[in-house]
Design brief:
The protein is built from eleven helices and no strands. By secondary structure, the chain is mainly α. It folds into three domains: 1-48, Homeodomain-like (Arc Repressor Mutant, subunit A, Orthogonal Bundle); 49-196, Tetracycline Repressor, domain 2 (Orthogonal Bundle); 200-229.
């Protein structure tokens, strides 16, 4: 019955438009009563996003099971990736919802409130992992926001293509920027700047130059790089 209500709702949304479709219209097409509708969905907005509660529960369960993970940032990325299953399992429906949401400001606002709940779940998990570290809560909030932004960037790129291609590849590509930028057990998690790539020093000298002089030239070059400007 739940699936029948969703199918009926989207058929009417596509035919008449979201605003012109009422709950009575939906239940009439689905062949059920209003009471049955409200048994599954608190409002008309909820029928547009029928699986977010399930996805949020799965994410929370995954994070709770990852409380002792060595790399919490990667686990947060993995949790965000779980949400993608909801979209990838039915590309046609996901693309229809994406296009509908873009057209209806009220649905866009509703979607943002759902996204905020995902972000808060990630921030709470990361906050517990970074507790006691300098700016632990700030770091958790920033990383959680970055994970959600990266996930949504890859997801929307896939949705804009009409659901063509590999949704997971697009999201993984975006999430990799978060993983690289916030190496959980490395410099960023410790409150230190990330290490730069090793520099290469090239010294040009004569073949018969004594080794001690070559070493001194290398040391002089490195000391010059370290000196403040």
């Amino acid at each position: 019955m739940r699936d029948a209500l969703v199918a009926a709702a989207f058929r009417l949304f596509l035919e008449r438009g979201y605003e012109a479709t009422t709950i009575d219209d939906i239940v009439a097409l689905a062949g059920v009563g209003r009471r049955s509708f409200f048994r599954y969905f608190p409002s008309k907005e909820d029928v547009v996003f029928p699986d977010h509660e399930r996805a949020l529960a799965e994410m929370t369960e995954f994070l709770e099971a990852s409380a002792d993970a060595d790399d919490p940032v990667s686990k947060a990325c993995g949790a965000a990736r779980l949400v993608l299953n909801m979209y990838a399992e039915n590309p046609t429906f996901s693309v229809q919802r994406y296009r509908l949401t873009k057209q209806v400001p009220g649905l866009r606002a509703y979607e943002l409130s759902v996204v905020w709940r995902y972000e808060r779940a990630l921030a709470e998990y990361l906050g517990a992992r970074f507790a006691g570290r300098p700016d632990g809560k700030l770091r958790a909030d920033v990383i959680a926001a970055a994970v959600v932004a990266a996930h949504n960037n890859g997801l929307r790129s896939w949705l804009r293509s009409g659901g063509e291609g590999d949704a997971f590849a697009a999201v993984d590509h975006a999430l990799e920027y978060v993983r690289r930028g916030w190496n959980a057990e490395g410099a960023a998690a410790a409150g230190e700047p990330a290490e730069a790539e090793d520099d290469v020093v090239v010294v040009i000298t004569r073949r018969r130059t004594p080794m001690w002089r070559v070493v001194r030239e290398i040391e002089s070059s490195l000391e010059g790089e370290r000196s403040p400007s």
